[in-house]
Q: What sequence folds into this?
């Protein structure tokens, strides 16, 4: 398997490629293509929840999400489903990546075909748009490195990439902060045609499970600020047939919705780690303990 992140990059993953300090900096398109190339090649299912809170922590809503992705397929395809807290379906989007992306949108209970007017509208009461959840901007081209900045001790490239003319994205451009050595995306910001900030997402913490690592929490905020949405990954499994007999390793037992099955599911974390979903080099920490990016070595 290869790497995921996600929003959640999903959404979801931490990259651990190391690059020589003497090598010339890669281009923005090379960095974006590298991130896409490291998405999982095996079919995977990722599940978790979206927690929406007011700025003072007052709960607004809780949703469940599920991602079924086959990025190794040609063309690559992924389906994202949003359920309410009781597991009843609300919305679903299938995206097929290509020179021009195609979309299949469904809504209602039961899910029925509907018209997707734009990727810009917020998903339910969250701060996310479909562009944020699907991370379609990773497939955009023509980007440039516009600067460098240190975030939580990580030296980062700042990439700016403009939306394609036929894009349904809410953004005219997106800025992405990527660590130079680990190729870890720490932050992303979406801007409109007037260069006004619309949304920001950032990684909050990682979690160690049986010597493996996954992004545990990512936060997304829409501007002007009214609330904040936390995306939390709860489980990931490899759907490839050769892994069907492997035991599952849940990513978190905390706040697992009661309607989700607790039956062990198959996964293969060794395959996941080799392809970049779970990095090999992170600080030694007891299993199950959260680790924030400030605790990760930038060397």
A:
């Amino acid at each position: 398997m290869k790497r995921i992140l996600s929003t959640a990059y999903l959404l979801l993953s931490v990259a651990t490629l190391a690059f020589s300090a003497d090598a010339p900096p890669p281009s923005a398109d090379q960095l974006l293509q590298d991130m896409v190339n490291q998405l999982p090649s095996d079919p995977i299912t990722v599940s978790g929840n979206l927690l929406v809170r007011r700025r003072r922590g007052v709960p607004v809503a809780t949703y469940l999400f599920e991602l079924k992705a086959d990025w190794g397929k040609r063309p690559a395809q992924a389906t994202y489903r949003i359920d309410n807290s009781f597991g009843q379906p609300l919305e679903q989007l299938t995206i097929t990546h290509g020179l021009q992306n195609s979309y299949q949108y469904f809504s209602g209970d039961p899910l029925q075909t509907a018209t997707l007017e734009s990727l810009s509208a917020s998903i339910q009461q969250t701060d996310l748009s479909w562009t944020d959840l699907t991370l379609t901007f990773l497939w955009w081209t023509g980007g440039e490195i516009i600067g460098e900045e240190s975030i939580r001790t990580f030296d980062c490239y700042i990439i700016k990439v403009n939306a394609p003319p036929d894009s349904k994205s809410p953004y005219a451009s997106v800025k992405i902060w990527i660590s130079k050595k680990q190729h870890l995306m720490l932050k992303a910001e979406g801007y409109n045609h007037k260069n006004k900030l619309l949304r920001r997402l950032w990684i909050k913490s990682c979690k160690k499970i049986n010597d493996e690592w996954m992004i545990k929490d990512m936060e997304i905020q829409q501007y002007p600020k009214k609330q904040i949405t936390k995306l939390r990954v709860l489980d990931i499994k490899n759907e490839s047939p050769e892994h069907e007999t492997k035991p599952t390793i849940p990513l978190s037992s905390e706040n697992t919705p009661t309607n989700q099955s607790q039956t062990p599911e198959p996964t293969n974390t060794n395959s996941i780690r080799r392809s970049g979903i779970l990095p090999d080099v992170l600080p030694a920490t007891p299993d199950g303990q959260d680790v924030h990016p400030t605790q990760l070595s930038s060397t």
